[in-house]
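Work Package 3 (structural annotation) set out to generate three-dimensional models for the target panel prioritized at the project kickoff. During this period the team completed the workflow that converts sequence records into discrete structure tokens, so that structures can be stored uniformly alongside our sequence database. As a representative example, we reproduce one entry of 304 residues exactly as it appears in the project archive.
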Amino acid sequence: MALLEYIANGLVFSSIIVLASVGLSLVYSIADFANFAHGDTMTVGAYAALVAFGVIGGLGAEILGLPLGFFVALAVGIVVAAVVAILTHKLVYEPLDIDSIGLLITSIGVAFVYRAVIQLGFGAQVTEFDIQVLRPIDALLPLGVRMTLHDVAILVSAVVLVTALHVLLQYTDLGRKMRATADNPDLARVSGIRTDRIKLWTWLIGAGLAGAGGGFLGLYSSVSPRMGFNILLVVFAAVILGGIGSIYGAMLGGFLIGMIDQLTPLLTDVGIPIGTEYSYAIAFVIMVAVLLVRPNGIASEVGS
């Protein structure tokens, strides 16, 4: 496989990791705990999109090779993931008067509940979106890149969503309040900011990004009850590598972790006998090595 194809695959996979890691970092920066149910929130979004797509179908038109119905179904998945996360926050996390470690442990239990409900409803089998697989883009084949329009759609959609988040955080009143709450919740509260509402918006946006990441992950590979759980540690690695609580650090960390994962086969090509099954391990080794030099993450100085 050509180097350019590894890079292309890395860009697509990284875009999914970025969506998930930014959502996780956003929730952490304001809710102040590591949400271990985040991966299963991705799964919730993926299954909601899968069901919605099965109901509404393709709707005729196409965008970048994907049926318009997929994007409508993806929007449904985003909304369902956000609603489930908000309900969990209001019914489980908020009533508990415990510290961040207690909430972290609680989120592990919540993740098991999400996964169990999904498995009871849909079974344990792996399934896929009923979307025709496209042939690679002809113009890229001479470069040794077998990239389809579906891959381009995932990449472009992720860029659009991340750009929208950037605009929200930097140029809107809600974004300024979110950044103020993340920096100093007590000061934000005495300044008149309704931090309880900001937390709700944070859960909505963070879980929505997770739902989008789950939908794209299902399109990229497949949909299963453990899909979010299987990728959760990679998402955490991206957040830690970028700098815990830093939204822009999570973007950078997600990009790097995703690229490292997909570039691992290059080691075999140059004579180092390390298979793709060790790609996550290599990503974690690099993460630890970076943290030894920069304990707060590679982009810790970048604001959230």
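Residues 3-225 form one domain.
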